[in-house]
Amino acid sequence: MITTRDLANKLIDYIYNKISLRELVDWAERAFMEEEFEEEHFDTIREILAYIGLSDVAAFGLTWEDCKRFLERLGYGVNIEVYEKSSNK
């Protein structure tokens, strides 16, 4: 069964480059076709998985804003930390 936590964790893995877009899309396509969804959030999970499943098509894509919006719909907050990499000058 796919829960909001499962979906959020996959999006987080993608944001942190732990999985590729292709891996995320493949997971979403399989989950959409083969898994059941948490009943309480059925529509939200289904809508997000459907969008992610099409994200490898150039006309759709998956932007940072999409990921942020999806995570917020799933009940997660998003903060970004930007830092200067140390350099050898």
What does this structure look like?
The structure is a single chain. The chain has 89 residues and is an all-alpha fold. The protein has one domain. It is built from four helices and no strands. The chain is globular and about 50 Å long. The termini are far apart.
- Report the sheet-strand fraction: under 5%
- Helices, by number, come to 4
Indicate the percent of residues in helices: 40-55%
Largest sheet: none
How many strands appear in the DSSP assignment?
0
Radius of gyration, in Å, reads 15 Å
Overall 3D shape = globular
Order of helices and strands: HHHH
Average of pLDDT: 92
Note the topology.
Elements: H1 4-15, H2 21-34, H3 42-53, H4 64-73
Helix pairs in contact: 1-4, 2-3
Which key features would you list for this structure?
single chain, 89 residues, mainly alpha, globular
Short summary:
With 89 residues, this protein is mostly helical.
